[in-house]
Amino acid sequence: MIDRYNYVIANLLGRENVLFLKYEDMVLNYQEWLAKFLSVFIAPEPNVPTETQPKGLLALLEKLPLVQREGRSPSPTFSALYQELFEAHKADFQVEDEDVYRHKRQVLPGDHTRKLQPETIAILNEKFAEILNALGYEPVANSQIH
Fold first, then answer.
1. Could you tell me if 121 and 145 are in contact, meaning their C-beta atoms sit under 8 angstroms apart?
2. pLDDT in tens, 72-130
3. Which of 3, 38, 55, 66 is the 20 to 30 Å CA partner of 45?
């Protein structure tokens, strides 16, 4: 598993044409996460000729079932698509209580701090330290373990 993370970090992280998004951001701030996600599909680059703009990404996005709507403009604006997706999915990251029998049991990040022993977390922090650091994560301190 560590080799897979290292491969991604070495070959993709920091590339101009790759966008890394975090699960935590999607759950805790869906509005901002969605804007970042859609920006790679729709937002044209300022001062870049149309012929050199990325082609096909918006067309690909429009083919997704969650985006296809009867009567929609064939080329929705960023604002229209953002608003539609935000309204349709803003409640997807809300779970009242944890239910181990549901597919969506618990959505908030940090669940491991409640379920793993502090010793286990310390071992994982040490083993994955370089990866956590490269991806912008801070190791969980013992004071954060519930």
1. yes
2. 555 556 677 777 778 887 777 776 777 767 666 667 777 788 888 989 999 999 999 99
3. 66
DSSP the chain: -HHHHHHHHHHTTT-TT-----HHHHHH-HHHHHHHHHHTTS-PPTT--GGGS--SHHHHHHHSTTT--TT--SS--HHHHHHHHHHHHGGGG--SS--TTSSS---STTTHHHHS-HHHHHHHHHHTHHHHHHTT-PPPPGGG--
Model confidence, pTM: 0.64
* CA 51/CA 14 separation, integer angstroms: 25
C-alpha distances in Å from residue 112, one per residue of 2, 7, 15, 53:
19, 25, 30, 42
- Residue 43, pLDDT > 60, answer no
Token output for 131: 């990866």
